[in-house]
Design goal:
heterodimer; A: 332 residues; Immunoglobulin-like; 2 domains; 11 strands; elongated; B: 549 residues; binds protoporphyrin IX containing FE; binds copper (II) ion
Chain lengths: 332, 549
């Protein structure tokens, strides 16, 4: 077999390593990371991208070299060398990938665990809270879930706040064809877009009214299916102010592509202001004759419903007060 | 009627190809041509999908029709193109490769084939009642509320095709185990047969589970039961488990036969023995076994608890090891060979270079924290097209070019074949590479309308897909030119060593004049071994066989 001399091999190896290391950090494929967890996921991806780039260059390089260097000469009808294998080589290319996937699996496990994927609340939350009546912080969220909680497990990813921490901001998320409705159980605010403060843990308790949806925050690298009849949850801490897309990632019907809204991460002060303004608006709605006339929620959404094909009885399940911008985010 | 066709010497009539014929070679061609027909149907749908996505608004077709299109595209490409195309090669080649005169159960074989058009027609007829629109995964509750009859036809089609694939698998396994010529032990069998063993095991173990899921889904749909319907207390997640218990193995069902094709093509056209015969054979079995315990990696964001996600992450990553062994062994087969860069080998190398990318992104997807970000996005669409198109379809074309002389007795047109390769390679990468970027940035899949910021990249994909569409023309030209005026191929134009090349091209009805003699291993290229009956070396024997034709 034609083994290129060791100097060339060495140089090629160094070049491939350098390119991989550089590209693994500079691929620019991911959007900004707006939480610490997101940055951790990016680190994992960067490592995988580095390894992948190396293997890519190696194999594609071998293929290209083969196509030029080992092309058959015209009229040459003889065979190549009869090499049927090479045990040491085969052991190497079995062992190295095995090692790589072990490292990746352990690293991924670490990150998943750190994101709270194995938090009892995330993996066995419902059950835990049911049986663990003395249990501290889990209880809040379970109570908040109110009637949405059945005996099934709450599934999802994200930590519960530690014992000394500020309690998480709870938001109930309701997914329906083709909109997200957010209810803040502590203040009673209902909104079509999500507002959260920077730096404080947020916990979303999510349920679907009709079919399966998925709640995706690309800038936070988290996604969780939102299912009818079963609560799922996400919990995260934003560390970057801004307005980010909220996308439904599970096929939910014809306007699935239009099922999106935004999540605004405010400074704590700005968030408080927002809560204030919402609460005031709600009160005035209650006392003054209700804005868009006296229509029921269902009637209020009817025109949108027809346009989008929302099933009528899902509207009946909506929370009671629908502020204007709950609908303004619907696709027109 | 079938008895008459089983052992009747003489010429093949062209009408045989349109009847219930039990000759495995006829059935192989029937499978191949039928699946190519559906490839074009599914391809037209893909082009309509891409045309819709050229702009962010749903303006080319309505969102409902868009959902029907990708649902039908996915279903057709999987169940009526790749899976039956694998069966086409298996039917045509297995008996020839092991020196048998037909499959073990010829009549069952013909039954399995004729279920293809039935299933296909049922599926396509669903357009008249409102085609299914809940994706090829058909998750309840959505699939229960988006058109009863289209969904029911989809279920029926899959049940029929699933049954056909089980019948085929029984046939392949029995034939491989029972009908090899006595000289051929299991370790001197061509690797394609090993690949079909691994494939058949998967089919037999997993397809019944899909059938169960679909029958229950059908009850929910038609009789209002609530196996999967949460409004009646059912659990939609159970459907997902059952579905993926089949459908993850299905991706190996779709790719393993083509791994087998690649293992046949590479040694012949690089004139070198396959590197690591046993490693390739056993790693196929390992993939097949691991393939059964990784299904929930499709459910990392679904109703699955954390520990379960971690378990399936670990098993999924392990699949990379046997897959890596194969890729490295194939590269080592090429290395140092004497490569004849004809269309067959070009497509095989194209396979290696594209499948590699699908494998690398596959490992990334196995890492749950990353998959949670890109699940159900265009990253995944990019990934699985690199596996299914870059993997299976490239290898399929390689196999078609490689065995075309055997099947037709004539040579295809090389120039047009090469043009076909170049266009496919460019179009394919242009279509699917940018999708990874789209998905990571935030574009979800199965959407008729998307954020305008993604338009320019989507247009690159759409242009790529048009190049892909046009690339089928040089393919058809190459095939047609070969058929009309291709030079006679002879028995063994490639000087290959597997048994199918010992008989005439196309093979006579009973396959071999007399029982073929195994005078060399399937990949003994470059070995100056003595043949069994004398002192000629393999090289001379080869030329001799080539001259006989
Ligand atoms: C002819 C070139 C092809 C093009 C341009 C193409 C394009 C696409 C696109 C853009 C989608 C995504 C649709 C969406 O999510 O909205 C898609 C989905 C899909 N494609 Fe292809 N594709 C091609 C060939 C194939 C082949 C050969 C297979 C092989 C089996 C295949 C299997 C699938 C599957 C399974 C889906 C998923 C459908 C679903 O989401 O339910 N495609 N294709
Ligand atoms: Cu959706
Ligand atoms: Cu899978």
């Amino acid at each position: 077999m034609n083994i290129p001399n060791s100097i060339t091999t060495l140089i090629a190896g160094i070049v491939i390593t350098l390119i991989s290391l550089w590209y693994g950090q500079n691929h620019g494929l991911l959007p900004v990371a707006a939480s610490a967890d997101a940055s951790d996921v990016d680190d994992l991806f960067n490592l995988m991208m580095t390894i992948a780039t190396g293997l890519f260059l190696l194999i594609e390089g071998v293929l290209v070299i083969c196509m030029f260097r080992f092309r058959r000469k015209k009229g040459d009808l003889t065979d190549g060398p009869s090499i049927e294998g090479n045990i040491p080589l085969e052991i190497v290319w079995t062992a190295i990938p095995t090692l790589i996937v072990f490292v990746l699996a352990i690293y991924s496990f670490e990150i998943y665990n750190q994101m709270g994927g194995l938090d009892p609340m995330a993996s066995r939350g419902g059950m835990m809270a049911m049986h663990n009546h003395g249990g501290g912080h889990n209880m809040d969220s379970m109570v908040a879930m109110g009637d949405t909680n059945d005996s099934r497990m709450a599934i999802g990813i994200g930590k519960s706040p530690g014992d000394g921490d500020e309690p998480a901001l709870l938001v109930d998320v309701n997914g329906l064809q083709y909109a997200w409705i957010f209810t803040y159980p502590e203040t009673g605010i209902v909104s079509g877009d999500l507002h959260i403060p920077e730096g404080r843990r947020v916990q979303l308790n999510m349920k679907a009214a009709d079919v399966i949806h998925a709640f995706w925050l690309p800038e936070f690298r988290i996604k969780q299916d939102v299912m009818p009849g079963q609560v799922s949850k996400l919990s995260f801490v934003a560390n970057r102010e801004g307005t980010y897309p909220v996308i439904c990632a599970e096929l939910c019907g014809s306007y699935h592509g239009g099922m999106k809204t935004t999540m605004t991460v405010d400074s704590p002060e700005a968030f408080d202001e927002w809560v204030q303004s919402r609460t005031v608006a709600m009160q005035s709605q209650d006392s003054v004759a209700v804005n868009p006339s006296d229509l029921s929620d269902a009637a209020f959404l009817q025109s949108y419903a027809e346009e989008m094909g929302v099933i009528e009885n899902t509207l009946e399940q909506l929370p009671h007060v629908i502020p204007d911008d709950a609908v303004s985010v619907l696709p027109q | 009627m079938s008895d008459a066709t089983i052992h009747h010497a003489g010429d093949r009539k062209w009408t045989d190809y349109f009847t219930f014929c039990t000759d495995h070679k006829v059935i192989g061609i029937q499978y191949l041509v039928t699946s190519f027909f559906f490839y074009f149907v599914g391809g037209v749908m893909a082009e309509m999908v891409r045309t819709e996505l050229a702009t962010p608004d749903p303006d080319f077709v309505s969102p409902e029709v868009y959902n029907q299109l990708f649902t039908m595209h996915g279903t057709i490409m999987i169940f009526l193109w790749i899976v039956p195309a694998g069966a086409a090669f298996a039917n045509y080649l297995i008996p020839l490769m092991i020196g048998a005169d037909d499959m073990a159960f010829p009549r069952l074989n013909a039954v399995a084939f004729w279920m293809q058009p039935v299933g296909g027609i049922l599926l396509i007829s669903s357009f008249f009642v409102g085609a299914p629109q809940s994706g090829w995964t058909s998750y309840p509750p959505l699939s229960l509320i988006s058109g009863k009859w289209g969904e029911e036809l989809w279920i029926l089609c899959l049940l029929i095709l699933g049954t056909a694939s089980i019948l085929g698998a029984i046939n392949f396994v029995t034939t491989i185990f029972k009908m090899r010529i006595p000289d051929m032990d299991i370790h001197s069998m061509p690797l394609f047969c090993w690949a079909m063993l691994a494939t058949s095991a998967l089919i037999l173990l997993s397809t019944p589970v899909l059938a169960a899921a679909l029958i229950l889904l059908s009850f929910d749909l038609m009789a209002g039961t609530a196996f999967f319907n949460p409004t009646g207390g059912g659990d939609p997640i159970v459907y997902q488990h059952l579905f993926w218990f089949y459908s993850h193995p299905a991706v190996y069902i779709m790719v393993l036969p083509f791994f087998g094709v690649i293992s046949e093509v590479l040694p012949v056209h690089s004139r070198k023995p396959i590197f690591g015969y046993r490693a390739i054979a056993y790693s196929g079995l390992a993939i097949s076994f691991l393939g059964l315990i990784v299904w929930a990696h499709h459910m990392f964001t679904s109703g699955t608890p954390g520990w379960l996600r971690m378990f399936f992450m670990a098993t999924t990553m392990l699949v990379a090891v046997p897959t890596g062994i194969k890729i490295f062994s194939w590269c080592a087969t090429l290395w140092g060979g004497k490569l004849q860069l004809n269309s067959a080998l070009l497509f095989a190398i194209g396979f290696l270079s594209s499948f590699l990318i699908g494998g690398l992104t596959g490992v990334m997807l196995a890492a749950a924290p990353f998959d949670i970000h890109v699940h159900d996005t265009y990253f995944v669409v990019g990934h699985f097209h690199y596996v299914l198109f870059g993997g299976s379809v490239f290898a399929l074309f390689s196999g078609v070019y490689h065995w075309y002389p055997k099947m037709t007795g004539k040579m295809y047109d090389e120039t047009w074949g090469k043009i076909h390769f170049v266009m496919t390679f460019i179009g394919f990468n242009l279509t699917f590479l940018p999708m990874h970027y789209l998905g990571m940035q935030g574009m979800n899949r199965r959407v008729a309308l998307y954020d305008p910021q993604y338009q320019s990249v989507n247009q690159i994909c759409t242009i790529g897909s048009y190049i892909l569409a046009v690339s089928t023309l040089p393919f058809l030209v190459s095939m047609a030119l070969g058929f009309i005026k291709g030079e006679a191929a002879g028995r063994n134009p490639w000087r290959a060593l597997t048994l199918e090349w010992q008989t005439t091209s196309p093979p006579q009805i009973e396959n071999f004049e007399e029982m073929p003699v195994l005078w060399a291993g399937p990949y003994d290229y470059g070995i100056d071994s003595e043949s069994e009956d004398g002192d000629e070396d393999v090289e001379d024997m080869l030329t001799e066989v080539a001259n006989v034709a």
